[in-house]
Amino acid sequence: MPFQVFNHPLMKHKMTIIRNKDCGTKMFREVVEELSALMVFEISRELPLKTVDVETPIAKTKGYELAQDIVIVPILRAGLGMTQGIQNLIPSLKIAHVGMYRDPDTLIPHVYYAKFPGNIKTAKTFILDPLLATGGSVLRTIDFLKEKGVQDITVLSIIGVMQGINKILEEHPDVNIYLIALDEKLNDHAYIVPGLGDAGDRLFGTK
């Protein structure tokens, strides 16, 4: 399924906390981390495993390890708010970074920084961006990753709208998209409605 909205009571509860305009920076950041971890916990049910030998204090037995490397790709800067929760679940993952800014007039995203680990071509790769609005930044990141030879790409966003989702799936039908909430629309300034405001500003207390 290329596009899925989670329907989990804990996610809905925590979403309400961060939508609230009175939610402070510390609480906002902590809840975004928790939501990101919950998303990956659900998705990880499908991750392939390999069998390994392990010795307990009592005897030798068989255990399991993830069979595929995991790389997360937070889009700077808001995507950084999603990294720690996922890293807590999968400490062995690698973290790539894509820095991008949006031209205020054209709304076209431009890359100003990109750094990838060496295993990214064969890894299961998660692009992290809390808000999937126009889809431009995520789309540019997908293009960037595919130029590097990455094949297994999943997008994780907390909130999205169909405008951005459709744009991504039209150009990259092989990419999976997971959301916690599907919102109504974009306003004239390309903000999600009802949304939660600017995720980067609320994460880092810059506004």
Could you characterize the architecture of this molecule?
With 207 residues, the protein is of the alpha/beta class. It has a single domain (3-48, 60-204), classed as Rossmann fold, CATH 3.40.50. It contains six helices and 13 strands. It has helices spanning 9-19, 25-43, 83-89, 136-147, 162-171, 199-204; strands at 3-5, 49-55, 60-66, 70-76, 94-95, 97-102, 109-115, 124-128, 131-132, 152-160, 176-182, 185-186, 192-193. Strands 1, 4, 5, 6, 7, 8, 9, 10 and 11 form a nine-stranded mixed β-sheet that branches. Helix 1 (9-19) runs antiparallel to helix 2 and helix 2 (25-43) packs across helix 3. The radius of gyration is 18 Å and the shape is globular. The N and C termini lie far apart (37 Å). The mean pLDDT is 93.
Task: Give the topology.
Elements: E1 3-5, H1 9-19, H2 25-43, E2 49-55, E3 60-66, E4 70-76, H3 83-89, E5 94-95, E6 97-102, E7 109-115, E8 124-128, E9 131-132, H4 136-147, E10 152-160, H5 162-171, E11 176-182, E12 185-186, E13 192-193, H6 199-204
Parallel strand pairs: 1-11, 4-5, 4-6, 4-8, 8-10, 9-10, 10-11
Antiparallel strand pairs: 2-3, 6-7, 12-13
Helix pairs in contact: 1-2, 2-3
Poorly predicted ranges: none
- The mean pLDDT is 93
Order of helical and strand elements = EHHEEEHEEEEEHEHEEEH
Secondary-structure-derived class? alpha/beta
What is the name of the CATH topology? Rossmann fold
Termini distance? Answer: 37 Å
* Shape designation: globular
Please, what is the oligomeric state? Answer: single chain
Report the portion of residues in β strands.
25-35%
CATH architecture assignment: 3-Layer(aba) Sandwich
Number of helices: 6
Sheet bearing the most strands, described?
Answer: 9 strands, mixed
* Alpha-carbon Rg, integer: 18 Å
Number of strands: 13
Instruction: Give helix % range.
Output: 25-40%
Tally of separate domains = 1
CATH class: Alpha Beta
